[in-house]
């Protein structure tokens, strides 16, 4: 196995603790338990909007048009509108690592969230009778192909030690941003 073949596992290992912590964050635990109310759900969507707008604003140019999350941001805005809520204003203060490859680490976090989103979409049956209000978590038909393309790119670029280190720094920074967004929006059941 070459070092490039382990780039994604290096990202996963480096971010495992924060990723697991976020899986058990109160709003996600409350969704899984069927007890997150509509106002708190709207606050969670606002947090996610803030996170994705910030990432897009800081890393979007490095991602290229194929990887941009505009469709995910549009789904978040539609879900917020359905709930009668508005997105938070402006991006969160955040300065991502600027080393080449860091944006790929950020994209790993942003795109990786689509995988668990489908599980969350199903868990919201108790709160929302149809797909309206949860289109962000339901995702789109292109999500799987985007994820596979990103993983292939991570493996290619991750064979260079400095690139891999930058990807890890970017992923860690993106997860830290998400935690700050959750704290800022004070999402509670």
TrEMBL record:
User: What Gene3D superfamilies does the database record attribute to this sequence?
Assistant: Heme oxygenase-like
What protein am I looking at?
Heme oxygenase
Q: Which organism is it from?
A: Allosphingosinicella deserti
């Amino acid at each position: 196995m070459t070092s490039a073949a382990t780039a994604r596992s290096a990202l996963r290992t480096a971010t495992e603790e924060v990723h697991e912590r976020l899986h058990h964050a109160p709003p996600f635990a409350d969704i899984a338990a069927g007890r997150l109310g509509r106002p708190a759900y709207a606050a969670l969507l606002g947090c996610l909007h803030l996170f994705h707008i910030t990432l897009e604003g800081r890393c979007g140019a490095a991602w290229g048009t194929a990887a941009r999350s505009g469709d995910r941001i549009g789904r978040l805005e539609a879900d917020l509108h359905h709930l009668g809520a508005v997105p938070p204003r402006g991006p969160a203060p955040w300065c991502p690592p600027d080393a080449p490859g860091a944006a790929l680490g950020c994209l790993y976090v942003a795109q990786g969230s689509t995988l668990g989103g489908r599980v969350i979409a199903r868990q919201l049956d108790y709160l929302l009778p149809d797909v309206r209000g949860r289109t962000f978590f339901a995702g789109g038909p292109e999500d799987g192909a985007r994820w596979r393309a990103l993983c292939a790119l991570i493996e290619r670029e991750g064979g260079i030690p400095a690139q891999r280190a930058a990807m890890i720094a970017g992923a860690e920074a993106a997860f830290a941003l998400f935690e700050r967004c959750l704290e800022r929006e004070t999402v509670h059941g």
